[in-house]
């Protein structure tokens, strides 16, 4: 018999979904009407041996408690902050994620947001579309990137890929994270606050966790300053969103370019109404190629687990 798998969200890759159906007995929670999901789950939960979820959805202790035979949680994404790792570890449930395969696309989006903020792309697009150019209305100049400092909070795979791209644009790069990275020529700041003080652009690429919650607070935003720009492609939880809105509204922070938010997909109206922000809907890894690669890694981890082989990308 095929192992029974509870799928909490679909992969955008049709090929990945076909592989899941071929190799496992899949139960798709995401296909059920929301008001019927709890009752539906009761009918399948007892035999579920694996869960496929996403970084945003994760899995909590209450759902795990309903799955007495679950052996593995396969996360389609890097972040595991929405997974109750205490609960999985207590029961010896394996957890996997999909690092590496989305590095380049997320780093590309970080630079897209940085460039869009620096060159005021949304405002320039609006200026042309609404006839401002044709009418000869004045337009404020943007800022060049060459020679500016790009500070990166979190210097793992994605942080280092962002650094390479920023350097290609002639930017100076510095980073901060608690553990120093050996072998990199990029200077490490003494603290996040020191990094913000030294940066023209502060890019957030650190993992979401209780330790990093609201790490970018009012003090850090003030240190980044009136001409500074915050770019976040990591997790919304890393930024104190209320402090960010206040800093943008008061112009104590120059701009923000955000792909992630505290309560997705609900973005505060106060943030959406500001002109000095660039907003995208958590699409850092949203390319055909990367979403397939992420889904394929999920499938490969499930295959490895049920074949008694080492997991490809276990979460420690």
Characteristic terms for this protein:
316 residues; alpha/beta; Rossmann fold; 2 domains; NAD(P)-bd_dom_sf; hydroxypyruvate reductase [NAD(P)H] activity; 2-hydroxyacid dehydrogenase; D-isomer_2-hydroxyacid_DH
| Series of secondary-structure elements, N-terminal to C-terminal | EHEHEHEHEHHEHEHEHEHEHEH
User: What is the CATH topology of the largest domain?
Assistant: Rossmann fold
The averaged pLDDT comes out at: 97
Low-pLDDT ranges: none
> Termini, distance in Å?
30 Å
CATH architecture tag of the largest domain: 3-Layer(aba) Sandwich
CATH level 1 name of the largest domain: Alpha Beta
Structure, described:
This protein has 2 domains: about 5-100 and about 290-305, NAD(P)-binding Rossmann-like Domain (Rossmann fold); about 105-280, 3-Layer(aba) Sandwich (Rossmann fold). By secondary structure, the protein is of the alpha/beta class. It is built from 12 helices and 11 strands. Helix 1 runs parallel beside helix 12, helix 5 (about 105-120) packs across helix 7 and helix 8 (about 190-200) runs parallel beside helix 9. It has helices spanning about 15-25, 35-45, 60-65, 85-90, 105-120, 120-130, 155-170, 190-200, 220-225, 240-250, 270, 290-305; strands at about 5, 25-30, 50-55, 70-75, 95, 150-155, 170-175, 200-205, 230, 255-260, 275-280. It has a 6-stranded parallel β-sheet with strand order 7-6-8-9-10-11, with helices on both faces. A 5-stranded parallel β-sheet has the order 2-1-3-4-5, with helices on both faces. It is about 35% helix and about 15% strand.
